[in-house]
Amino acid sequence: MFNRDRWDEILQALTANKFRTFLTAFGVFWGITILVLLLALTNGLKNGVTADFGNFATNSMFMWTQGTSKPYKGLPKGRYFNYKLDDVAALKSEIPNLKYVSPRNQLGGFQGANNVIRGTKTGAFEIYGDYPEYIKQQPMDILQGRFVSYSDINSKRKVCVIGTDVIKSLYDKDEEVLGSYVKINGVNFMVVGTFKMSNSQGDNEQDANTIYIPFTTFGQAFNRGDRVGWMAITAVDGVPITSIKQQVFDLMKSRHTVAPDDDRAIGHWDLSEQFERINGLFTILTIVGYFVGALVLMSGIIGISNIMLIVVKERTKEIGVRRALGASPWTIKGQILQESLILTILSGMVGISFSALIIWVLNYLLDMSGPVDNFANPSVSMTVVFTALIILVVSGLLAGLIPANSATKMKPVDALRIE
User: Fold this and answer.
1) pTM for the full model?
2) CB proximity list for 137: less than 8 A, separation 6 or greater
């Protein structure tokens, strides 16, 4: 129940020595500010680093072939082999935990020779032969038209989907793109779609300079047949690709007569494993942030506890009078705890507000200056805020517990004798 006299008494006690109260509250203010800012900066670093993965399905890996390192069944060491479309079908049929298996081929490169012509304009771009599933592994925003389809795959249509920087290089402003033609290594392709990558960090320059065409058309137009340069493989939800990739390797080794223990013959990059390592690192950094922030906050709490002990000492005679007039030990203890709790929560809430202002300023500066490498959107969740509030309440109670017990242990007669 609200007791005006009690609140007036608490306010009077806290304002009796304003400078002392300010210095005491500053410890808690600074501790909670450090805690929230450390967690926000850790989250900003995590956002920046994980943005390098783009929106690619993180439960995925890339797999390609390399030279064998061991002779096997009469075949020599150093032999090279290629994946085929039959390998893709075998993976899908024999390993049920695979969600997507996308064969890929590549031509040219961002820094290679000019390989695309439109009229009098030329450019060097990444050319990929892909299946329709790839857009589910590497999400992209289709700005106009569509991505490649199975109809394109089956009919081996000479169609393409081009990135935003390809448009800037080969087209005039406001020029119609859909339905136009570009010549890739001497072969004409009709543009059926345009895209940009779905990436919070902005378009990656290499991605924006990319052209996608149907995989089967790539093989026919550029004399690749059914050879596969590499595969993008994604596991089903709930099954880490890391746990089943050895099954994939074993199947490919058996199909291409590679020694079972020849680990060099198949190259791969496990996106899921790398992502988990990064998440583990930032989990540790978050724990360190809580630990360091808690230590700084603890120093503030100790300061409040010490000051409350001094306050109890200064009010010993007052406590003796109240006890002599019939105040119960719990009434005295409740008042001390309440004063400590209010001082802790008020200073902590100011600290949370101050840290929120700093986070807002940081995000504003980042928006003004543009993307920063390995750092983006420093922020904290509401869970962190509620956790901080719980820490404040518990800390306030702990800070007042020792002084409150000290106040109730004195006998009224002894307290009244003290001058």
Assistant:
1) 0.68
2) 56, 57, 60, 100, 102, 232, 234
